[in-house]
């Protein structure tokens, strides 16, 4: 565990910085639904990496 401390410390510091950024942004929001705002923010950051969902047209028929 001690050998991995050098790898974990930057990850924890980065996570802390992200949470401070999100907290500051949420405090400026007049929205009563801050948790929803946080989820939308996170999904906007993640979703572009995944791309839009496109169902496959080539699904085999059953029956």
Topology diagram in text:
Blueprint (H helix, E strand, L loop, with lengths): L4 H24 L5 H17 L13
Give a short synopsis of this structure:
The chain has 63 residues and is mainly α. It contains 2 helices and no strands.
Structure description:
By secondary structure, this protein is an all-alpha fold. It has two helices and no strands. The mean pLDDT is 77. The chain has helices at residues 5-28, 34-50. The termini are far apart. It is 65% helix and 0% strand.
List keywords for this structure.
2 helices, mainly alpha, flat, 63 residues
- The computed structural class is mainly alpha
| Cα shape | flat
Unreliable spans? none
The Cα radius of gyration reads 19 Å
The main β sheet shows up as:
none
Overall pLDDT score: 77
Strand content: under 5%
* Terminus-to-terminus distance: 55 Å
Give the helices and strands as they follow along the chain: HH
How many helices in DSSP terms?
Answer: 2
- Per DSSP E runs of 2 or more residues, the count of β-strands stands at 0
Helix content range of the residues, please? 55-70%
